[in-house]
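Troubleshooting log. The previous structure file for this entry was overwritten by mistake, so regenerating from the original sequence record. Sequence copied from the archived sheet and checked twice against the printout by T.R.
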Amino acid sequence: MATAGDAGKLLAWLLTLSELLCWCCALRDVMLVMPPVARAGSSVTLQCLYDLESDTLYSVKWYRGNFEFYRSTPHESPPKRAFSYPDFHVDLSQSDEHKVTLRRVPLHMSGTFACEVSLDAPNFSTYVKKGQLLVLDTVRRPLLTVSKNVYRPGDELEANCTMPSAASAEPLPPELAPAPPAPRYSGQPGQPLLPELPPLQAHQLTAEQRRHLQKDADDNPPVSFGFWVNNKPVPAAYVQQRPWSAAMLRPVAEADFSPQGELRLKCVATLADKYREPSHVVTVRRQVAVEEPPVVVTEANSAVHAPLPGSADRSVDAREYSRVSMCSSSGPR
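Regenerated output below.
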């Protein structure tokens, strides 16, 4: 028979379970919607979508790495705040509790972005969603190179296509630190907490430091490459995709050459199915076969070499050859 103590324990357990269920269901379908790739200098909108159900939103905070750069608190004044961060330009007019818009994003903004959604009383639950943004310098075209400029039918046409990117971009601004520590926060009660940025360091970063800083361990950027021969796509079987480049090895056919003996090759880099950047067209030529000059024979054991290229194409018979030889031998001594 259940006692009053058992009933109390059961009630406490049910209340705890109710709180857990409420906490689990307080935020539903939290999603971070952001482009995986952005063009350097363009505007980017990041969206944090969620379903509060019957709860009340307290704040939405946005971070790049450990740095908070934007906060939306609908029940405070002002409801929107943008915090200082090097080269971060938040467009407050295009930002709210569901989205934030960044203007003129630079290359070194590649990295991890996160939105943090917090509920007000009584739940006080928080949910964080993260995503990767890759900023590419797509103003420059992909670089297309070939192993040689002259080919014969049956040769292997070898080409490489490389995309200028955050991994191979120009050195970062020297005032940018390669690995900034976590920010320290200072402020008075009731005042917004502004990130106190670490001292800026002035030195030249190595390629590996740039790669680590700008890609944030994202070793598989969403870049794919395609090759075209005379405006016809090359089958994927001849193309080897790499993180930032692609190699093509394809046999050359007689039909690949124009009547003028030219073959036109180009490559196209596709970034996250959003940007398409073609390379310059590279023209290679058909190799012209070089034939050995024939040997002209007019009489047994009497042969002379064929004329050199550019001279008259004529045969010399043996009698003429003998006469010329005799004249040469009977000259003045």
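The radius of gyration is 36 Å. Archived copy saved in two places this time.
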